[in-house]
Design goal:
The protein is α+β, with helices and mostly antiparallel strands. It is built from eleven helices and 19 strands.
Length: 381
């Protein structure tokens, strides 16, 4: 029997694997990806300063930072709302940090983590899609291609979590999609990110090398026609929708969309099974919290595993400790993103006032702004 079976070596599962690389435990890592397969469709991940510290500790940050165009620091975030009062700027200076966070290429991060897992001699099996994860009173069973392997603890970080027996999944569809594309602004890049709240939901611009990653929330029926526009008409539609605050956008690359949902496992663990990252909770991207929460899941679980005797791995006390440790941060991540998506996704005058007031208060009350910024950077503990 293995000590740990990690199902899914995406950015979150691979972070856990790297954090445990020198533990001396018998760890098997399984991923559905074909070995060496080129990932397609890059994403701009918003990484908090806290997540950077985790990547430094597991020895991945330096390689990532050396990769051309892989990491762009965010020095400030300009938050505003269309057709309403109130705006604020969250700045790295406010919290005494060199950057509020970083925009990281998903493909570059995955490449750095894959290289780190290989260098650490971790046994990663690619081309291994897991079809089921079960748990008995004493161990977990992971099924793939008709074969089964047993582990004291199965960690599910496959981004979906639907193969786990005996764990309920709660799902709320927002009825919106996020359209993502790379764009270029007329002004030279200066590390400022923009989050603009509109009646249809947020529009975000994340600095990404010389370009910006655009995340534009809209109803699915509108997304089809907006995606089909030629570049010129697309830029005109974006300018009309988001207004002048985000600056002049002069070019746009290929676009794609993904549906916005809140989905989470309840609970995120049971004896011999623990869930991490998007498998544990998939959030609305409104505050760029989802991936950072997943990194904190991985890091907290690694600390608990290292602090648990081998024979007690996966047993109820260890799993309960994981649930307790992650409870407040997960609940806050879910509540904040869900609440913000409600507050900022509506055109109703009932909420336009409080959100304008909220932004105005953040702007005039530096301690409130600092507290808000810190919670976004480091989570809630
Ligand atoms: C289309 C899309 C666009 C996104 N865009 C953004 C964005 O612009 N900015 C942002 O911050 N966040 C974005 N997100 C969210 C972000 O990608 C996630 O927060 C992050 O990828 C979570 O990492 P993860 O490791 O938990 O899961 P994933 O990144 O999904 O990794 C899961 C891993 O598990 C493997 N796997 C899957 N199924 C199995 C299986 N059955 N057996 C074994 N292995 C399996 C996969 O091959 C993969 O390597 C986006 C998400 C999606 C779906």
């Amino acid at each position: 029997m293995h000590d740990l079976a990690i199902v899914g070596a995406g950015p979150v599962g691979a972070t856990l694997a790297c954090a445990l690389a020198r533990s001396g435990l018998d760890i098997v890592v399984l991923d559905a990806r074909a070995e060496g397969a080129t990932l397609r469709g890059d994403r701009a991940l918003a990484l908090s300063h806290g997540a950077r510290l985790v990547f430094e500790r597991i020895g991945v940050w330096a390689a990532l930072a050396r990769t051309p165009g892989a990491v762009t620091p965010i020095v400030a975030i300009d938050v505003s709302q269309a057709h309403g009062f109130g705006s604020t700027t969250l700045a790295a200076n406010d919290v005494g940090l060199p950057a509020l966070g970083y925009v990281v290429s998903y493909i570059a991060l995955q490449a750095a983590l894959d290289a780190a897992m290989q260098a650490a001699g971790l046994a990663v099996t690619f081309g291994a899609p897991v079809s089921r994860v079960d748990a008995s009173a004493a161990f977990a069973s992971v099924t793939l291609d008709g074969a089964t392997l047993d582990a004291r603890l199965a960690v599910v970080a496959d981004g979906g979590g639907e193969h786990v027996a005996g764990i309920e999944r709660v799902r709320h569809a927002y009825g919106k999609v996020a359209l993502i594309a790379d764009v270029v602004r007329g002004a030279p890049p200066d590390g400022v990110a923009f989050e603009r709240f509109t009646a249809e939901g947020p529009v975000a611009l994340l600095p990404k090398g010389g370009r910006y990653g655009l995340v534009w929330t809209m109803p699915p029926e509108r997304a089809e026609s907006v995606c089909a526009l030629d570049n010129r008409a697309f830029l005109a539609a974006l300018a009309a929708h988001a207004g002048a605050r985000i600056g002049r956008i002069v070019s746009v690359g290929p676009r794609r969309t993904f549906p916005l949902v809140l989905e989470y496992a309840r609970p995120a663990a049971r004896p011999h099974v623990a869930m991490l990252g998007n498998a544990a909770q998939t959030l609305h991207p409104i505050a760029g919290q989802g991936f950072n929460l997943g990194v904190r899941d991985a890091y907290d679980l690694a600390r608990i595993v290292l602090d648990t005797p081998r024979e007690a791995l996966g047993a109820a006390p260890m799993v309960d400790r994981y649930l307790r440790t992650r409870r407040a941060d997960r609940a806050a991540g879910i509540a904040v993103t869900h609440g913000l998506s409600r507050l900022f996704g509506s055109d109703s005058a009932l909420v336009a006032w409080p959100r304008g007031l909220g932004l105005a208060l953040l702007d005039v009350l530096p301690p409130a702004r600092r507290a808000f910024t810190r919670a976004m950077l480091f989570g809630v503990h």
